[in-house]
């Protein structure tokens, strides 16, 4: 029966990667990313036992208080990516400057990553994740920041790993759809469980996801959009985990909209373009959804069109099913 097939014919991540690229360096890179995700999943699982809760005592460039697991997961990713000989430039939420891989270990990929997303949720055992985006270096010679300060649409791979009840990896190779993998801890492999994931055709469940604690600081169109979600006798449900990976994963699978708007205290919003906005936008678009910045620097931008000038630059985020993102954007049109 089907179980037997699954016990002798493992649809692993590396098998999927080899079937979807002829580039050995990309195959090696994805192996390094998978290793780092597995090691980070293990660190999250043992955090309570290994005294890995709490703060590391430093702040990162974004001004976040680094948690011990922010630093540990960052070390895991930096070591895995430096030593796989497939990378030229690394950008991490937890490193102020890009890491330039020494020429002796340099490869052709540039990886921007958020090693632990939603890290404020670690100490209370609420799901967290990792987010990553991969560019292919186009400028010959040693890596520079210009190899990674690129538009979202230049990404060749986007992905996230969610450390939840299951450890789930979601990956999109440019132009090849969105694929889900679940970690089978008994063999330490990510198994391909769902191919070509798409948003529900009708926009899916009526769910909106936002930190409404900030709503008094949002711009007026955003306030009216959320008021609309709450109106009538069949209002939208509010679901907000506070880890982007978890909120985006639920939005991708169930439908609805996730918004992290700009507000009076942070005009660019909170989420960082290179390692939060872009990878999620690529995945959302490949699944048939929409990823917008909403009104940002006087215009409404498709997220993937942004060209960041700094590796920790932020942007507002409105992403999800076409039905619901367009509903929010409609309040900007009438305001304009
Ligand atoms: P990180 O933990 O990598 O710094 O990211 C946290 C982000 C994102 O995961 C989440 O959507 C957002 O912060 C939540 O922000 P609020 O706590 O302001 O709602
Ligand atoms: Mn952070
Ligand atoms: Mn994050
Ligand atoms: Mn983070």
TrEMBL record:
Its EC number is 3.1.3.11. Keywords: Carbohydrate metabolism, Cytoplasm, Hydrolase, Magnesium, Metal-binding. The keyword Metal-binding applies. The keyword Plastid does not apply. Residues 12-194 form the Fructose-1-6-bisphosphatase class I N-terminal domain. Pathway: Carbohydrate biosynthesis. GO terms for cellular component: cytosol. One of its GO terms (molecular function) is metal ion binding. It catalyses: beta-D-fructose 1,6-bisphosphate + H2O = beta-D-fructose 6-phosphate + phosphate. SUPFAM superfamilies: Carbohydrate phosphatase. PANTHER family: FRUCTOSE-1,6-BISPHOSPHATASE, CYTOSOLIC (PTHR11556:SF41), FRUCTOSE-1,6-BISPHOSPHATASE-RELATED (PTHR11556). This is Fructose-1,6-bisphosphatase, cytosolic. It comes from Diacronema lutheri (Unicellular marine alga).
């Amino acid at each position: 029966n089907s179980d037997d097939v699954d016990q002798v014919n493992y649809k692993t991540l590396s098998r999927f990667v080899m079937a979807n690229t002829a580039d050995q360096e990309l195959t090696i890179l994805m192996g390094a990313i998978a290793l780092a995700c597995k090691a980070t999943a293990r660190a999250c699982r043992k955090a309570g036992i290994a005294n890995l809760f709490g703060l590391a005592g430093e702040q990162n460039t974004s001004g976040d208080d680094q948690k011990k697991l922010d630093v540990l997961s960052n070390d895991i990713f930096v070591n895995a990516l430096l030593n796989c000989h497939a990378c030229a430039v690394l950008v991490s939420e937890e490193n102020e400057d890009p890491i330039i891989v020494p020429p002796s270990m340099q490869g052709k990929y540039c990886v921007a990553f958020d090693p632990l997303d939603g890290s404020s949720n670690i100490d209370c055992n609420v799901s967290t994740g990792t987010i990553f985006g991969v560019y292919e270096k186009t400028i010959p010679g040693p890596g520079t920041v210009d190899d990674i300060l690129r538009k979202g649409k230049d990404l060749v791979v986007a992905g996230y790993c969610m450390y939840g009840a299951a450890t789930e990896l979601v990956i999109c190779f440019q132009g090849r759809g969105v694929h889900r993998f679940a970690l089978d801890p008994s063999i330490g492999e990510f198994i391909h469980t769902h191919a070509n994931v798409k948003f529900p055709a009708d926009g899916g469940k009526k769910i909106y996801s936002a930190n409404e604690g900030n709503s008094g600081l949002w711009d007026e169109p955003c306030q009216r959009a959320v008021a609309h979600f709450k109106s009538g006798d069949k209002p939208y449900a509010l679901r907000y985990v506070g880890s982007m990976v978890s909120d985006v994963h639920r939005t991708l699978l169930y439908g609805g909209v996730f918004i992290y708007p700009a507000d009076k205290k942070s005009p660019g919003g909170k989420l960082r373009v290179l390692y939060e906005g872009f990878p999620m936008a690529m995945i959302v678009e490949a699944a048939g959804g929409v990823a917008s910045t909403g009104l940002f620097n006087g215009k409404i931008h498709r997220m993937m069109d942004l060209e960041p000038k700094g590796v920790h630059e932020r942007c507002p985020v409105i992403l999800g099913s076409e039905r619901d993102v367009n509903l929010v954007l409609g309040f900007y049109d009438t305001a304009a």
